[in-house]
Design goal:
Elements: H1 2-10, H2 15-31, H3 38-51, H4 66-72, H5 80-86, H6 90-97, H7 111-114, H8 126-136, H9 140-143, H10 147-150, H11 153-163, H12 166-171, H13 175-183, H14 189-206
Helix pairs in contact: 1-2, 1-14, 2-11, 3-14, 4-5
């Protein structure tokens, strides 16, 4: 709805991205209880907007320099030479760092790249794609994983939220615990808090929750 698009735009989302995801947001947020309170909505939007770069990104960017590989994925690139060998090769990087975990096969299987992060909260790993496929009831996901970014970017984020029972954490207004559950650490906490405060104010001003999403 118009006020919802305006809210997202006030938070920094482009009008095109807001319009693109509007229908899926209106469909899924009430169904999984996220729209049952302003507080849940505010936490959902603050986390999703941070994770997706204000809804600009729906696929993981793995185009790392050698220096970045050593800093971010030092466990998988223990030497400068190895990092140089993989630098600026996203497919090779994904296949290495995601190999033999999250349900993926070995580096040579290609699962790391095939099931790299997609969606507004990056769905990553073959096992998680399978769980999402089962949750969504769409068997195409495993053979066509790009659908997670092209058709189901919102759905995959809601899946993660629902599967991890994040409504309960949002109800406690615990942004630190939510961030840890989503991010694994506290990266971007200040930005998430900034977005949370902005979303809370806008939702109250526009009176969206329980009227336009319910």
């Amino acid at each position: 709805m118009k006020t919802h698009v305006e809210m997202l735009m006030e938070m920094g989302v482009s009008s095109g991205d807001a319009e693109q995801y509007l229908g899926d947001l209106e469909e899924t947020l009430p169904r999984y209880g996220i729209a049952h309170s302003r507080q849940r909505l505010a936490h959902f939007f603050s986390q999703v907007l941070h994770e997706s770069g204000l809804m600009r990104f729906d696929t993981e960017n793995l185009n790392y320099s050698a220096k970045a590989l050593r800093a971010v994925f030092g466990k998988y690139f223990p030497t400068d030479q190895m990092a140089e060998d993989y630098a600026r090769q996203p497919e090779r990087i994904a296949n290495r760092v995601y190999a033999s975990r999250m349900g993926n096969g070995s580096e040579s299987s290609g699962d790391g790249w095939r099931y790299r992060g997609r969606g507004l909260i990056q769905l990553t790993g073959k096992a998680n794609y399978q769980a999402f496929s089962d949750w969504l009831g769409d068997a195409r996901i495993m053979a066509q994983p790009d659908l997670v970014s092209t058709d189901f970017a919102v759905h995959s984020a809601v899946f993660f939220w629902d599967r991890n029972n994040l409504n309960a954490i949002a109800d406690k207004d615990d942004v630190i615990r939510l961030t840890k559950r989503i991010n694994g650490g506290l990266n971007g906490l200040s930005h998430r808090r900034e977005l949370l405060n902005k979303a809370s104010g806008l939702l109250a001003m526009l009176d969206i929750a329980q009227t336009q999403f319910a």
